[in-house]
Specification:
Blueprint: H1 10-27, H2 37-49, H3 56-85, H4 91-101, H5 105-116, H6 120-145, H7 149-153, H8 160-193, H9 202-211, H10 215-229, H11 232-235, H12 241-254, H13 264-271, H14 275-278, H15 285-322, H16 328-348, H17 351-362, H18 366-393, H19 403-436, H20 445-454, H21 458-486, H22 493-503
Helix pairs in contact: 1-15, 2-10, 3-6, 3-8, 3-10, 3-12, 4-6, 5-6, 6-8, 8-22, 9-10, 15-18, 15-19, 15-20, 15-21, 16-18, 16-19, 17-18, 18-19, 19-21, 20-21
Transmembrane segments: 57-86, 106-129, 188-206, 212-230, 297-325, 337-359, 365-385, 429-449, 461-482
Membrane topology: Multi-pass membrane protein
InterPro entries: MetI-like_sf
Length: 504
């Protein structure tokens, strides 16, 4: 028998990530580029303190479209993912799912704009395509983990599909439904962010008002968004899903959509072919690839990794200091309620939207992206750790310490494995989102993708998106390898996320 690989110690992982973070901090652009950040911050604060609901009709319509895009996109992704989950074990299907989910919704929207235009179909597909890959993976895992006892009770010659549908599926349905509701919250965040590429959701109003310095109106858009996402567990129930879906389809069908140009898809596919090949110059393909990889892909990768490394360190620090806030035995009942509210707000605002808001104060640098990614992901990890820690306190001895001593000497040592697993789990997501934040002007891979799209160079955009997807998959593989060598997992991670939404 082959010897089992030696366990990777947490101290070595911490040392490695600490050294990488130090190097990233030295290389990161953390400059405050705004001429007077405090003046802008005061103006934004004044707007947040006095939201301007000047046009309630426009706000209501944008909110309705935000919900409609989310529901239709998640529904289409869930149905497609459910079908794909039956064949997920087959290599080509799994490869297709990995490919579509490794591209961010905003990147999908940028590509689809050239095919379907600035209309409802673009928004729905931008959410549905990556979500289909995510749903396929998670649904396949839930079905595989269902109790096999019912399947063994069926006749031996029962076809595999019938065995799956009549034995495993009924057992997995509650988990599939809970995960779909969790994904709807994610879809609502994605739908709002799609407004930053021109779709008429709440994100569009927020961006427009901020760029025009109408901070009161922008605060109203943000307030409406929070009013939608914070109580989502109350207004979105599975039994009401058909009603919400029908209303969303009706609303999007009535929204004006630009006509698709004749041959738009074929033209896009043709433009996606590298320029030297289209010109019949196969010898020029190598130099073209060399220029693209050396002048755009490599600098974009380096900037993406620098930004994501500092953001991961910040998220870890926020998680360690933030999880005790929602443990009742640490902060008391009132303190836990306040801490819960802070973490829910931080995790509910999309990191892209948060980075845009901070960018208005700091100016263009890596700083707003690092702060947004750190706050958003740190709040998610802190929320999950805090819930686990709060459950642990019920099993502690009566004379166990309280307050910060309880968090430092009792809870953190017991939660350390979960902490590492959750940070490594979010690492791939932080890298993926670091790339997309380039659309805000930060020189990550998204910056070069956006430039290629603006210049109508589809072949360059597709190549850079492939590079971004490969980078994300590489980080995901490295994260999985580290977790395996450390022999840690995030217990019930898929289940913990829906529970966190329910607790919110």
């Amino acid at each position: 028998m082959a010897a089992r690989p030696r366990r990777l110690r947490a101290s070595r992982v911490l040392a490695g990530f600490g050294l990488a973070t130090l190097v990233a901090l030295i290389l990161a652009d953390l400059e405050l580029a705004h001429p007077d950040p405090w003046l802008t911050l005061r103006r934004i604060g004044a707007g947040l303190a006095a939201p301007d609901f000047g046009d309630p009709g426009a706000l209501a319509y944008a909110a309705a479209l935000t919900v409609a895009f989310a529901i239709c996109g998640v529904f289409a992704g869930a149905v497609s993912g459910f079908v794909l989950s039956f064949g997920y074990a087959w290599g080509p299907v799994r490869g297709l799912c990995i490919a579509v989910r490794s591209v961010h919704e905003l990147f999908w929207a940028l590509l689809l704009l050239g095919i379907t235009g600035l209309g409802p179909l673009t928004g729905v597909l931008a959410i549905a395509l990556p979500y289909a890959g995510i749903f396929a993976k998670v649904f396949a895992e839930y079905l595989a983990e269902a109790d096999p006892a019912a399947a063994r009770a069926l006749p031996r010659r029962t076809p595999p599909l019938s065995r799956l549908l009549w034995s495993r599926l009924p057992l997995a349905l509650p988990e599939l439904g809970a995960y779909t509701l969790y994904r709807l919250e994610c879809g609502l965040r994605s739908s709002a962010v799609l407004g930053f590429v021109g779709l008429p959701t709440l994100g569009y109003l927020l961006e427009t008002d901020f760029r025009q310095a109408h901070y009161g109106a922008a605060a109203a858009s943000l307030a409406v968004y929070l009013a939608l996402i914070l109580p989502i567990r109350h207004w979105m129930r599975l039994r009401l899903a058909p009603l919400w879906l029908g209303a969303s389809v009706w609303l999007l069908a009535r929204h004006p959509a630009p006509p698709m140009g004749d041959g738009a898809l074929l033209r896009f596919l043709s433009d996606a072919v590298p320029a030297p090949i289209r010109a019949g110059d196969w010898a020029g393909l190598g130099p073209w690839l060399g220029r693209m990889l050396g002048e755009q892909a490599l600098p974009g990768i380096v900037a993406t990794l620098i930004l994501s490394q500092v953001a991961l360190a910040l998220a870890a620090a926020i998680a360690v200091t933030g999880f005790p806030l929602i443990v009742t035995r640490v902060t008391g009942r009132a303190g836990a309620l306040a801490g819960h509210l802070v973490l829910v707000l931080a995790r509910s605002v999309p990191d892209y939207m948060l980075a845009f808001l901070i960018l208005q104060v700091t100016g263009p640098s890596m700083l707003p992206a690092i702060l947004a990614l750190g706050l958003h992901n740190g709040a998610i990890i802190a929320h999950l750790m805090g819930r686990q820690g709060d459950a642990m306190t019920a099993r502690l001895r009566p004379d166990a310490p309280r307050g910060l001593r309880l968090a430092a000497w009792e809870l953190m040592p017991r939660l350390s494995g979960n902490f590492f697993a959750l940070c490594l789990y979010r690492w791939e997501i932080i890298v993926r989102d670091s790339a997309i934040l380039g659309l805000l002007g930060i020189a990550t891979l998204g910056f070069y993708v956006d430039a290629a799209v603006q210049e109508l160079r589809t072949d360059r955009a597709v190549l850079l998106l492939v590079v971004s997807a490969l980078l994300t998959l590489g980080i995901d593989g490295l994260s999985g390898w580290i977790r395996g060598r450390m022999r840690i997992t995030a217990p019930g991670m898929r289940k913990a996320e829906p529970e966190a939404v329910e607790a919110a």
